[in-house]
Specification:
Number of helices: 4
Radius of gyration: 15 Å
Structural class: alpha/beta
Largest sheet: 5 strands, parallel
Strand content: 25-35%
Helix content: 25-40%
Number of strands: 8
Distance between the termini: 17 Å
Length: 140
Amino acid sequence: EPRRLDVPGADLPDVRYLRDLPDSDHLRDVLDEGHRVAIVGGGWIGMEVAAAARQHGADVTLIEVADLPLQRVLGDDVARVFADLHRERGVDLRLGTGVRQIVGDDDRVVAVVTEDGTEVMADTVVVGIGITPRTDLGAA
């Protein structure tokens, strides 16, 4: 199961976790020119979603607590290359900060507030911050 974001507003309908094909189909349906997507997590999932969203013309902001996306798995030098490529393609990287809350209005995502207090306007939030093992399967 995808790890859930534990902040106020994380239960809004436009906060998405990629679990299966219907999740990715829905995300693809909303990614269009001018749609604002905030991606939480700079791992493989977050970076892939950022690249795909930009290809569809969406405005993309990626929020990552580490200093570079993919830093833990690739090291600084290669992670810097990935960061530069995404920036060149129009992804706004907000690095070294996490999410404080997701702001909604009438059950719609309006913005993501980062830990440093910055407000990132968004229509959809995609969370890719890892997985939690499904231990209930082993107990069955």
